[in-house]
Amino acid sequence: QVQLVESGGGLVQPGGSLRLSCAASGSIFRIDTMGWYRQAPGKQRELVAGVTFGGSTNYADSVKGRFTISRDNAKNTVYLQMNSLKPEDTAVYFCNARVQDYNLYYRNYWGQGTQVTVSP
Q1: What burial class does residue 4 get, using C-beta atoms within 10 Å of its C-beta: 0-12 exposed, 13-18 middle, 19+ buried?
Q2: Is residue 76 within 8 Å of 25, Cβ to Cβ?
Q3: 97, 78 contact by CB (below 8 A)
Q4: Which of the residue ranges 57-61, 100-104, 109-113 would you say has the lowest mean pLDDT?
Q5: Burial (CB count <10 Å: 0-12, 13-18, 19+), residue 40
Q6: Which of 75, 83, 95, 106 is deepest in the core (most CB within 10 A)?
Q7: What was the pLDDT predicted at 62?
Q8: For 102, how many CA atoms within 13 A lie in the half-sphere containing its CB?
């Protein structure tokens, strides 16, 4: 089994910054892609940003230029630096990881979610 533990959410004013972290632990041989998704009330969960093992990244158009995803492969940790936050960024943010176990099987895991609220 693999656990993803997120941290760093909270309340911030518009224009402010937050940094989310997500650490994976458990039966991990290698983590392929890691990413952040978010879900606002009444909306579907959407991809915010993703990063491959090699460091290639992709972003939702709505966060390009404001958010930066990075990862530390030695620590099995992914980060999301969020700058110039807007009220529409308010959502529960979920960490996702595609993990290869020691039997070389791949499985998708989710964190429990962390609330980000952008409000004056």
Answers
A1: buried
A2: yes
A3: yes
A4: 100-104
A5: middle
A6: 95
A7: 97
A8: 5
Residue 97's DSSP bridge partners are: 34, 109
Three-state SS string over the chain comes to CEEEEEECCEEECCCCCEEEEEEEEECCCEEEEEEEEEECCCCCCEEEEEECCCCCEEECHHHCCCEEEEEECCCCEEEEEECCCCHHHCEEEEEEEEEECCCCCEEEEECCCEEEEECC
- Using DSSP bridges, classify how beta strands 30-39 and 10-12 pair: parallel, antiparallel or unpaired: unpaired
Task: Report pLDDT digits (tens) over 4-49.
Answer: 999 999 999 999 999 999 999 999 999 999 999 999 999 999 999 9
Write the single-letter amino acid at 83.
N
Q: Which two tokens stand for residue 108?
A: 């998708």
Structure confidence at residue 36 (pLDDT): 98
CB proximity list for 114: less than 8 A, separation 6 or greater: 6, 7, 8, 9, 20, 92, 93
